[in-house]
Amino acid sequence: MPPKDSDPSTASGPRSKTTRPRAIRRLVIWYRRNAAVTSLVGSATNSASAAGNVAGTVVSSAGSVVSNAGSMAGSMLQPLVFDPLRRLQSSENNAEAEDIKNSDRLWVAVDGMGGDQAPGPILDGCLKAIQRLPLRIKFVGETEKVLGAVQAIGLTELFNQATAAGHLELVASGPSVGMDEEATVVRRKRDASINLTMDLVKKGEALAMYSAGNSGAMMASAIFRLGRLAGIDRPAIGALFPTKDPTQPVLVLDVGANMDCKPIYLHQFALLGNIYSRDVLQVARPRIGLLNIGEEECKGNDLAIRTHELLSEEHRLQFAGNCEGRDVLSGAFDVVVCDGFTGNVLLKFLESVGSVLLDVLRAELPRGRRGKVGSAFLRSNLKRIKKRLDHAEHGGALLLGVNGICVIGHGSSKALSVVSALRLAHSAASHGVMDDLAELQKAPVESA
To answer: What is the pTM of this model?
Structure first.
C-alpha cells in the first residue's frame, strides 16, 4: 500500500516508480514547512559531495538519497545558508590575501622539522597562512627533506610563488631534534632547526616563532637562547580552552611546563596570563581564577591556600577567586591558573571530549528512516562541535615568561592547525605583548 504522506502529484504514476524522487520531495516539503530547521541546509550543502561516506558511518542505507537531497535542497535554499567554518577555507580568503600589503607583513620563524609528519604538513600550513595572513615566514629545516616534501605533496608551484614574492625564505638547518629525545639534546645539536628558529627571534629577524616539535626541547631552547623575563622564575605554557561563548576562550596556564610549583610561580602565571588575555584576546579587564576544589578561600591544599593570599593582594590584576573544575569552561573566568601537573591532566582530558561526545551523539541519534536521513544532515554540525572542544584544532599554546613570542603546536598538527597557530603568533606580535611584559619586569615579584 502507498505511504500515507506520498505526494498526490504522483498518485496516478506507475507503481513501479522508484522511491528516490518521493523521498527527495518529502525532504524539500519538510524543510519548507520547518523554517527553524533551514539552518541545517548549510550542513547538507557542505556534506553533499561526501554524503555517500556519511551514510557509511551514520546511515547504512540512505547514501544516494542524502546525496540527491543535499544537492537539491542546497540549490534551492543556498541564499539562507551561512557556515562560519567555511570562511577559513573558502576562496574569499584568497581574495582578501590579494589586498595584503607587503609593508604590513611581519616576519615569523617556523621550525619546519618539528612535528610527527614534518616537514610536509607544516610547510603546507605555512603556505596557506601566507595567503590568508599578513606574514612573511622564515622556514627553518633540512633543505633536502623540505624540497622533497614540496614535490611529494604537490606544493612546488605555491612554494616557488611564495619564495619569488619574498614571502617565504628557506633557512637551512642541521639534524633536527626528535620527538622522543631528551630536552637537553638542544645543547648538543646547536644547529638544529629549533635552535636556529630561536636565534632568528633573538636577533630580531623574526618577531615570533612556531614549532610543533618536542615541547620539552622547545622550552629548553627558549630558556637557553632567549632567556627568562626578569621577575619570572618559571615560564608557563598557556592554552586556550573553549567556553560557552565561541568568541571568548579561556586561557589556562600552566598546562605542562612545571609539574611542581610554588605559590610565587602561580602568582607570576597570573600576571603573565593577565597581560596576554588583555593584549591578544582583547579582554579589557581579565577575570583571573585559581583552579581549586571549592570556591571558599580556605579550601584546597597548601599551594592553593597560599596562592590565594598572594592573588588577593595583587593590585595589577582582577582576581575573581577560586575556580572549580566545572567552571573552567563556563565563561566566568578569562584566565585560570594552576600547576603544570593539574593543567596537563585538564588539557589531555579536554582533548578526548570532542571525539567521545561525537560518538555518543551518533549512537543516540534516531534509527528510523527519517531519523537516519536527518542524522546525515547533522554531520557538519557535529563536526563543528568536535572542533570547538578539540584543543588540537585551536592551533597552539603560548610559552609565556621567556624573552620572545613562542607558540607551541600539537605534534600531530595538520595544515589548518598550523594556520591557526600562526594567526596566534601574528596576533601576539602585533598587539605589543612583549612591550607590556617589559613593563612587568620593572616591578618584579620577589621569590617566595
So the answer is: 0.70
